[in-house]
Amino acid sequence: MDRIPWNQYFMAQAVLLSLRSTCTRLEVGATLVRDKRIIAGGYNGSVSGDVHCIDEDCYVVDGHCLRTIHAEMNALLQCAKFGIPTDGSEIYVTHFPCLACTKAILQAGVKTIHYLHDYHNNEYAISLIKQVGANVHQVKLDEKYFSKLQLGEALTENL
Ligand SMILES: [Zn+2]
Ligand SMILES: [Zn+2]
């Protein structure tokens, strides 16, 4: 039987997480994986206890929403909060990470960045990934693995 490949399985988890985003400027999800086990997940959202952008509008300065913690950061911070090692892990993100997140991802010891959508792919981020010996890889979701889920557009629009 043709089973869903790990890369698509974990990326689908990131897509699912993106649906929890509270900042609608960009719905991003991130899944941290070590030894083929999900160790943490995150989505774009406010600091716990703060208002949500979906309720109060974004707090935009210089084209960026100041309120939002990026999905990748939230996944890493979940590990910090609960004492989960991230060294040697992999991250699955729905959009190519911004430079700040890329630096945090690399510094946390994440070895491979899997992303779904190109998104302002930062030149310095790309060279940094190479420089430190990490990997970056784009994942394509194949419809045949998801059609039976009948999850509607949430997943299929990312195929
Ligand atoms: Zn926002
Ligand atoms: Zn970011």
Helix/strand structural class:
alpha/beta
Number of helices: 6
What is the CA-CA span between the terminal residues?
21 Å
Average pLDDT figure: 94
CA radius of gyration: 15 Å
What labels describe this entry?
alpha/beta; five-stranded mixed beta sheet; two-stranded antiparallel ribbon; 32% helix; binds zinc ion
Describe the structure.
The chain has helices spanning 6-18, 53-56, 71-82, 99-107, 123-131, 153-156; strands at 29-34, 37-43, 60-61, 64-65, 90-95, 112-117, 135-138. With 159 residues, the chain is an alpha/beta fold. It has a five-stranded mixed sheet, sandwiched between helices. A hairpin with a 2-residue loop joins strand 3 (60-61) and strand 4. The mean pLDDT is 94. Residues 70, 72, 97-98, 100-101 line the site of one zinc ion (ZN). One zinc ion binds at residues 70, 72, 97-98, 100-101.
Topology of helices and strands:
Blueprint (H helix, E strand, L loop, with lengths): L5 H13 L10 E6 L2 E7 L9 H4 L3 E2 L2 E2 L5 H12 L7 E6 L3 H9 L4 E6 L5 H9 L3 E4 L14 H4 L3
Parallel strand pairs: 5-6, 6-7
Antiparallel strand pairs: 1-2, 1-5, 3-4
Helix pairs in contact: 4-5
Bound molecules: zinc ion (2 copies).
The site of one zinc ion (ZN) has 6 residues, from α4.
Brief sketch in words of this structure:
With 159 residues, this protein is α/β, with parallel strands linked by helices.
